[in-house]
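Chain A, query sequence.
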Amino acid sequence: MLRRLQILLQRKFKILLFFLLLLALLMHMALDLALPAAPSSCSCIPKAANPLGLPPSGPLVSVQKKLSLRILQDFSGSNGSLEKGSHSLEGRPPAGGGSKMVLRDGDFEHQWEDVKSARTGRSKMAALFEHPLYKIPIPELVKEDKLFSVNPKEKFTLKNSGSDEWVSSSKAEMVLPTGKTPYDTYPTWLRFHIGINRYELYSRQDPITPTLLEELATQKIIGSVQKPGGTQLKLIMTFPNYGEALFKPMKQTRDQETPADFFYFSDFERHNAEIAAFHLDRILDFRRIPPVSGRLVNITKEIRDITTDKKLARTFFISPASNVCFFGECSYYCSTEHALCGKPDQLEGSMAALLPDKELAKRHSWRSPWRRSYHKSKKAEWELNQNYCAQVRKTPPYDSGSRLLNLIDMTVLDFLMGNMDRHHYETFEKFGNNTFLLHLDNGRGFGRHSHDEMSILAPLQQCCSIKKSTFLRLQLLATEPYRLSDVMRESLASDRLSPILSEPHLKALDRRLQRVLDMVRVCMAKGGQKAVLVDDMGKLQKGKWQHQETRSKQA
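Chain A, predicted structure.
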């Protein structure tokens, strides 16, 4: 009897223990389900939409991407980009290996700022583009203001593209968009071309721009040839939708400065400078640089194996470190000693959207009045004559319209980048003198963060004129809520090769911005605000743009 009672108690105890474990499990499951739905106690401001139109990512994903090191190029030869560079593959774990990473203290400085920004939900870039200064409308467009007149009923096909080059060079299968309307059949690059007008390359909130940036970074490359001319190697890449892009390969690591003994005309062309220039131009609200994306290219599969350029094909070789290298043909740095090498065949570079063919949209190339001598000892006239601007004001096309003011805009952009290599600029012939200047070829910017080349600001210093809208935006970018370096850091973070600029270059932007503002204030102290700030903001009256130029011409 006692034994039966003992067995009964054991059974009841086991059943009770089982129910307790089951109850605990159910409570854990209930808590897990309830937590995500619980109201948050954070009083953060909801994160603003990404102005580039890219899908937002969570703070944890963003931080992981920031902290992970990318595959970048090590360079052989005398270009100075040895394995000591901060973006070497040495800091990246081997495929299938452990998660060990090599990071510098400087990497965490701005990355922690990104983390704090993600936590608080603040976006300085979104706030900047919501500011009234970035919502000033352009004039109402008429037919003459558009670069192209498009038949809205005609679909895009290879037959009506009129390009023999596409037919002969594309052996791979080409892919075009499909849709119900003719516009839906236009590839993204064509929509970008159609949107160009007298006042801008692309609009502020153009939905095409983020799509084009994504395609430049990800679309399959089916053709690769060397771009003729120029002092350094550049490639033309072809995509399956008949689009093309200009590829500039990486030549320097992010933390390398151009040596002080280098002349401006013999400096490297940096791929990250092209990327950063596009973002800076957009933040300044110029929108005069075609979209540029960073991309990691496979030298073997996306250049060597598909190129039809025999001169380029002859320059490929395998380095002693078993890396795929090539050097092409150009005036500078195209030799075995300055070869571009992958790791083992991955090469970083910039991909810039090409403008319409000059046969379809003619462009005029203008020699800059403040062009440098491009000589080791000679100086240009503007460097010797402080009254040089008075002479320029009397010379067409600078004697009328906004050409001189547009050139000063370009001067501000170049000074912020440290770009001394602005010998020519281009405009679309269709729009005559009343249009913007194209800010092309910015590869020699962002070379020296420790030096501010004040001679770049000679047009502003000598003419003492600047657009009112430009000055007001520069003032805005000098304030803490819209600090230029912060907005640039946030904008550049959207690129696949981020970080694009090292922290010293970002800090140099704030320093140089103050120098520009100081120079304008000196001018206003001498000649008065009305004489220096030219009111270009205008008013929309009866569908027409009325410019209010308050500055009288000076002899």
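The two ends are 124 Å apart (CA to CA). Residues 35-119, 160-172, 539-555 have pLDDT under 50 and may be disordered.
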